[in-house]
Amino acid sequence: VSINIGSAVEIEWSSISGETYQVQYSTNLVSTNWFDLGGTIMATNAANNLLDSANGVPSRFCRVISD
């Protein structure tokens, strides 16, 4: 789930407390190149989020993977 907040996008996902997650992005869905968006996040709740500054950033796709 993503929500626009001014010049940023909040990415929120369901998680398991104690698990580690990495948010990644790509500029298109055809490419197999995904890049880390920030560092890993240790879940502390059933839902976690990351605020991504979208100021001046071209469109991109995000995914969340568990480590």
Architecture overview:
Helices cover 0% and strands 52% of the residues. The chain has strands spanning 2-5, 8-14, 20-26, 35-36, 41-42, 47-53, 61-66. It is mainly beta. Strands 3, 4, 5 and 7 form a four-stranded antiparallel sheet that branches. A three-stranded antiparallel sheet has the order 1-2-6, with no helix packed on it. The radius of gyration is 12 Å and the shape is globular. The model has no long low-confidence stretch (mean pLDDT 85).
The number of distinct helices, counting runs of at least 4 residues, comes to 0
Summarize model confidence as the mean pLDDT: 85
- Rough outline: globular
Number of strands: 7
Instruction: Give me the Rg, rounded.
Output: 12 Å
The SSE order reads EEEEEEE
How much of the residues is beta strand, in percent?
Answer: over 45%
The major sheet is characterized as: 4 strands, antiparallel
Helix content: under 10%
Q: Please identify the structural class as seen in this structure.
A: mainly beta
Report the end-to-end length measured between terminal Cα atoms.
20 Å
| Stretches with pLDDT under 50, minimum 5 residues | none
Topology readout:
Blueprint lengths: L1 E4 L2 E7 L5 E7 L8 E2 L4 E2 L4 E7 L7 E6 L1
Q: TL;DR?
A:
This protein has 67 residues and is mainly beta. It has strands spanning 2-5, 8-14, 20-26, 35-36, 41-42, 47-53, 61-66.
Please name the defining characteristics of this protein.
mainly beta, 0% helix, 52% strand, 67 residues, 4-stranded antiparallel β-sheet, 7 strands
